[in-house]
Structures are given as C-alpha cells and as structure tokens.
Amino acid sequence: MITDLQNILSTNIKGMKRSAIRELLKFLGQPGLISFSGGFPSPLSFPIEELKSIIAEVMENEAAFALQYGTTEGDDLLRTMLANRYKANGIDVTKDNIIITTASQQALDLISKMFIDPGDDVIVGLPSYLGALQAFGSYGANMIGIPMDDEGEDPNLMEEALKDLASKGKKPKFIYLIPDFQNPTGITMSERRRKEMLELAHKYDVLILEDSPYRELRYEGETQRTLYELDGTGQVVILGTFSKIFCPGFRIGWVVGNPDVLDKIVVGKQATDLCTPPFTQRIAARYMEKGYLDPKIEDIKKMYSVKQKVMLESLEKYMPEEMKWTHPQGGLFLMVTGPEDLDTNALLLECIKEANVAYVAGNSFFCNGKGYNTMRLNFSYESIETNIEGCKRLGSFFKKVLQK
C-alpha cells in the first residue's frame, strides 16, 4: 500500500461522509434487532412469481437485446411506458422528456455534476433527504436550508434567502424539493404552497428539482398535482424511481424534464456508466406492459397504510409525552422530535444495545448541522407485530433517558 494515500485523494472525496443510513445496515444482522432505520420496502411487496415468468420470457425472446449494451437515454419501450403513465395522470410528456438512470440517486449525482461548482448555492429543505445532501455536498455546494411547516418549505423564508442571494448578485443553481411525503418528515406540500414555490422560482429565475420517489404511496387525503404539471414552462425537473413501488434491487430511476436539460445529463451519464442495465429495464417494461404495476401499487398501499396506522397508534401509546411526531398521509417515514437538549445521535448505539431498536438520527438530514433532537422512523419494512414491539421498546428507552 502506498504511504501517502491521504495526500493524493481528491478534494471531492475528502469532503464526502459515509451515509448514516448505510452504516446502520451493519446492525441488521443483530439477533432480534428491530430496524426503523432504512427506507426499505417490505420484501413481501416484491412480485417474485410474476418476475420469474417475465425474466424467463425476456431470456427466451429478447436475450440479445437485454444482455447487450444499451443507449444512454434508456430503453425506448420503458421510456414510452413511463410517458404513457404520466399522460394518464394528466402530465403531458413523451419519451423524449425522459432519461433512465441507475436509480434516482444517480440522477441526483448527475444533476449535481451538471450544475454545481464548488461554492455554488443550492436551496434545500430543513430537513431534507440525506442522499441528496450527500450528492450536492460532494460537488462542493453551499446548501441553504429552508425550515418547514405542515405545508412544506416556508415561502417567506424561501424568498428571504433568494432575495439575499440576489442582493449579492447571486442565485442558487436550483431549489430541491420533495413535495409528496417528504423524506425524512413525511410532510406533503399543499397545492397552494406548490404554487407559491413556483411563483418564487419564476420571479427569481431558478430551476426547481422535484424529487418524487413516494408520490404513489398515498394512504389518505387528496392527491396534489406535481410541481412539474403546475409549472408547464420547463422550469421544473422531476425525478422518479421504481425503488419504492417495484424493486429497489433493479436500480431503475428516471429524470423527466426539458430535452435541453436531459441532453447534458446524457453527457454526464456517458462518463459515469454508459447506460443503465438493459436487462432490468426490459424486465420492468414488460412488467408494466402486462398491467402488473398498478395492482401491485394498490397492494403495497394497503399493506403500508396498516403499518403506518399501527406505528402512529403505538407511538401515541408508548412514547413519552415530551416527544412529538409528524402524521404523514403516505410514504415510508415519519419524524419524531424531542426536547431541545435531547441528542438522538449520541443515543443511537445505546438504543441499539439496550433496546435492540435502530432509528436514523435526525441531524443527518439537516444541512445546517442541527436537528440533534429528532429522529426518522420507517414503518414499511418491519411487520405489524415488530412495529408495535419496536415502538414499545423505543418508548421505554426514551422514557428512561428523559427521566435522567
């Protein structure tokens, strides 16, 4: 091994940090551990039998295509199927508005590569998705966090940030939003708030990056129109993924946007992985073509809505009264907030050791280094029984902590 490894590392890698969520996966093999940490779909949601048949068909009839290199833009059949799905939901796009990525995390990286130079400003939620913060931070972005209320990012604080930048002759490269069942809070942005965000984006001429991995997992309430649909001018780029509604192991995501934006993403992707695997793309396309996806999503929603209800009821029953939490209408997560002097990051390993329960400490989601009194809980992965037991253990642990 060379002696000066640290000296030859790039500035980018030196600035990167390990994912707090990925690091927690090391504990998943611990006997009896109940994990509320990762954003894992339930294994019961995977369409195993249907995929066995489709994989066999693809290998029988389309092996030459599926096992070969593919186009950087993605499988035409899959892009067409996705475009048709958007059209059915009132969003007017064609396959030319879509590029397939190796999951939405790659899309976040490619967009960061495309727009961010070291020191550039990017506006994010406070809190916001850890993977996005990692992607933006890896390219040297200066992230400006906008606090949230029950409807999403505060528009007054958003305008203050935009106005302050404009007074310095600057503007952010983009505004990053997760309007539906936001990660980590579970909050859904109201349509009124979405329109306010668009008004600010138009007023200050800023691109909006709309991350939409959970949108179809709604269990109650009214569906809100996407920012992309409300905008209609090409000033919004939307990210989608199959990871929460199909199979995360397939690593299929996509970007919907103006062809001029997609062209630059294609260039960046060619330097990254050339193409997303044609094999998994074609399997996903055939799965959609056979009409399996929508019924599967309905099954998933029924499963997760019960788990969400059970977790909310269990938190109410077992958690100390000093702790409060969000009540999402869908998605996979909710966020718990404790007293200001609570440090969930410092308590995490102790909780795993004593209560055999894992969560994600909330400070990972705050670009300003705060949020130590919060934690994110996932309700989709564990069973109903372990959701209840996990909340019981968690409540007991934090009652002891707060008594001290």
From TrEMBL:
InterPro entries: Aminotransferase_I/II_large, Class-I_PLP-dep_aminotransf, PyrdxlP-dep_Trfase, PyrdxlP-dep_Trfase_major, PyrdxlP-dep_Trfase_small. GO terms for molecular function: alanine-glyoxylate transaminase activity; pyridoxal phosphate binding. It holds the Pfam family Aminotran_1_2. Its cofactor is pyridoxal 5'-phosphate. The keyword Transferase applies. GO terms for biological process: alpha-amino acid metabolic process. Keywords: Aminotransferase, Pyridoxal phosphate, Transferase. The keyword Transferase applies. It is an enzyme of class 2 (transferase). SUPFAM superfamilies: PLP-dependent transferases. Its EC number is 2.6.1.44. Residues 53-393 form the Aminotransferase class I/classII large domain. Homodimer. Belongs to the class-I pyridoxal-phosphate-dependent aminotransferase family. This is Alanine--glyoxylate aminotransferase (Alanine--glyoxylate transaminase) (Agt). It comes from Cloacimonas acidaminovorans (strain Evry). The lineage of its organism: Bacteria, Pseudomonadati, Candidatus Cloacimonadota, Candidatus Cloacimonadia, Candidatus Cloacimonadales.
